[in-house]
UniProtKB/TrEMBL annotation:
Domain (Beta-ketoacyl-[acyl-carrier-protein] synthase III C-terminal): residue spans on this chain: 236-325
Domain notes: The last Arg residue of the ACP-binding site is essential for the weak association between ACP/AcpP and FabH.
Active-site residues from the entry: 115, 252, 282
Protein name per UniProt: Beta-ketoacyl-[acyl-carrier-protein] synthase III
């Protein structure tokens, strides 16, 4: 009996050129490089240029992933863009990406799960592949999240950045005696009772404006480590692996203290944890694929490695996905 599995064909990323340091921020809002580094672990973040939209960031990351995979847009059947900051209320940023890539076939849609968006999108792509709806899926996490910030609110404006990361998943048939590879297991969760702990106070149906980010930071922090570790354990349990089998842990990049706390609770050595929050800040749905791209490009993540992706954010939503690279 053959088994269809979603394997990773390539990854890529894009960061806007403009880098905003903590010291620069401290000139306009009552904060300091020392506070931000100590409490969050961020040194700098990238900011999209005027006229540079989420779909532009997504296309640049998609092209990098296609190059990495040795594929062209003709080879892709489905584009999923995980984003909270689409160019327009509609159409989906994914259809704009499809157009900009010159793709006239297949289908494309956006997925909204805030910071967990990429993990949700990878899991959705895996289901589409296993159900025969698509063979090659371009999964993108892309955000111009800084456009949702109130730059006078020091409790949120220091935390976020812009960027995009992409992954190409391909359905392959494994022979009976072939070891498992690709996406091995995933677990997704949400709990809407926490919606107002991290939300944006606008939207087409409520205010008719995009709104600004509001967060009860310590409350989100209080939930983060437990929810992250629960969903990682649930994913491991489904796959039959244990924490000791993991080669790499690629968590959502919101706060270095949350990443360290989750790593310590799981009993993972710090050298197995991929951390980019210092240079990217929290890029919401883009954070996991951006971190993945860094660790693939610098040679840490190699074929055969066991990689755990994890994210948690607004909603609350949270999830994890285990991949044999
Ligand atoms: O991506 C989705 C998931 N998001 C997260 O996981 C974020 C989770 N939350 C966090 O990472 C942290 O709660 C924050 C980084 C947001 C805040 O860190 P904290 O250690 O929880 O600080 P706090 O909110 O308890 O604030 C401590 C102090 C306060 O001053 P007082 O009341 O003690 O005088 C704040 O007003 O730090 C002050 N403060 C700041 N000071 C300088 C808050 N923001 C800043 C700032 N610069 N930017």
């Amino acid at each position: 009996m053959t088994r269809i599995r979603s394997i990773v064909r390539g990854v890529g990323s894009y960061l806007p050129q403009r880098v905003l340091t903590n010291d620069e921020l401290a000139k306009t809002v009552d904060t300091s490089d020392e506070w931000i580094q100590q409490r969050v672990g961020i040194k700098e973040r990238h900011i999209a240029a005027e006229g540079e939209f989420t779909s532009d960031l997504a296309v640049a990351a998609a092209r990098a992933a296609l190059d990495n995979a040795g594929l062209t847009p003709d080879d892709i059947d489905l584009i999923i863009v995980a984003t909270t900051t689409p160019d327009y209320t509609f159409p989906a940023a994914a259809t704009l990406v499809q157009m900009k890539l010159g793709m006239r076939h297949g289908f494309a849609f956006d997925l909204q799960a805030v910071c967990s968006g990429f993990v949700y999108a990878v899991t959705t792509a895996d289901s589409h592949i296993k159900n025969g709806l698509a063979r090659r899926v371009l999964v993108i996490g892309a955000e111009t999240f800084t456009r949702l910030l109130d730059w006078t609110d020091r409790t949120t404006c220091v935390l976020f950045g812009d960027g995009a990361g992409a992954m190409i998943l391909e359905g392959v048939e494994l022979a009976e005696d072939e070891p498992e590879r690709g996406i091995l297991a995933s677990a997704l969760r949400s709990d809407g009772q926490h919606w107002d702990k991290l939300y944006v106070d606008g939207g087409p149906s409520s205010t008719g404006t995009a709104g600004h980010v509001h967060m009860q930071g310590p409350e989100v922090f209080r939930h983060a480590v437990g929810k992250i570790t629960d969903v990682v354990y649930a994913t491991l349990e489904k796959s039959g692996y244990t924490v000791a089998d993991l080669d790499w842990f690629v968590p959502h990049q919101a706060n270095k203290r949350i990443i360290d706390g989750a790593g310590a609770k799981l009993g993972l050595p710090t050298e197995k944890v991929v951390t980019t929050v210092d240079i990217h800040a929290n890029t919401s749905a883009a954070s996991v694929p951006l971190a993945l791209s860094v660790a693939v490009a610098d040679g840490r993540i190699k074929p055969g490695d066991l990689v755990m992706l994890e994210a948690m954010g607004g909603g609350f939503t949270w999830g994890a996905s285990l991949i044999r690279w």
